[in-house]
């Protein structure tokens, strides 16, 4: 199996490490800064005997090397600086993602593409359009990351194992993300009966602002351990053909009554990419929130 990662920065290089150490695939790490990608590939190669895998990694700036990829992950682009929203990245990242997508179309036309670059939903929509691939083959990583952040904070509050918490974080990867509280459970018990409303509201807010909280603490750069972990989870679901349900940003075509927007919804992910979009029954308030989120993403797409 072969995974190409476009952008050898913090998210891309950490994802490369995760893929290699899983033993699932060989990796091509491509960056516009050629020597940096080569240097990181050398460093990751030197770690292989210690990490105990036999996978190979190459660093490059040449798109020919991504040919034959099963999965291509787009992490190229600018990360936020303190005080910026993800939407503030549109102008800089749209040109990058468009160029990257055109190269994927040319050199890896049979690959499944996972978008990580922000603003996530808008960049996913753009990558789908620029590759011209079926919508099942181009989707974005965000809901799994936001869900993981939410699960971590809930489990910490209740002092329960993280594995006992189930949730869905739908909508945009931004201020209008939609926690589906009606389907958030701890060992099968609804969260609303376990955490008082004001505390739950503050956990939701902290989850929504978690990326910005981390950006402000890091001073330079944005989160990368958790984004790369979520991107790896999706990559592994494709390579292992698990068909597990996870939240991905996908271009809707009538599902949830929406069209012409990429937005986070639960999907079954396998070797063909998005193999099924799951239409959850939402409460009235969650449905209204989801629609408002779609509207916000559409106005961001309109800027393109
Ligand atoms: N082609 C290839 N690589 C590019 C291009 C391009 N056209 N433009 C920029 N890059 C590379 C940069 O050289 C850099 O190495 O993308 C990399 C981005 O790495 P970082 O700056 O470390 O950013 P990172 O933290 O990895 O985030 C990347 O993911 O989570 C999102 O918001 C985040 O949009 C950002 C993206």
Describe the structure.
The protein is an alpha/beta fold. It folds into two domains: 2-140, Rossmann fold (3-Layer(aba) Sandwich); 143-303, Lactate dehydrogenase/glycoside hydrolase, family 4, C-terminal (L-2-Hydroxyisocaproate Dehydrogenase, Chain A, domain 2, Alpha-Beta Complex). The protein has nine helices and 14 strands. The chain has helices spanning 10-22, 34-51, 90-107, 120-131, 143-158, 197-208, 210-218, 225-239, 284-303, and strands spanning 2-6, 26-30, 57-60, 71-74, 112-115, 138-141, 165-166, 169-170, 178-179, 185-186, 189-190, 244-253, 259-270, 273-277. The strands form three sheets. It has a nine-stranded mixed sheet with strand order 3-2-1-4-5-6-12-13-14, with helices on both faces. It is globular, with a radius of gyration of 19 Å. The chain starts with a strand and ends with a helix. The structure holds adenosine-5-diphosphoribose. Adenosine-5-diphosphoribose binds at residues 6-12, 31-33, 75-80, 89, 93, 96, 99-100, 116-118, 221-222, 224, 227.
Task: Summarize the structure in short.
With 304 residues, the protein is of the alpha/beta class. It has helices spanning 10-22, 34-51, 90-107, 120-131, 143-158, 197-208, 210-218, 225-239, 284-303; strands at residues 2-6, 26-30, 57-60, 71-74, 112-115, 138-141, 165-166, 169-170, 178-179, 185-186, 189-190, 244-253, 259-270, 273-277.
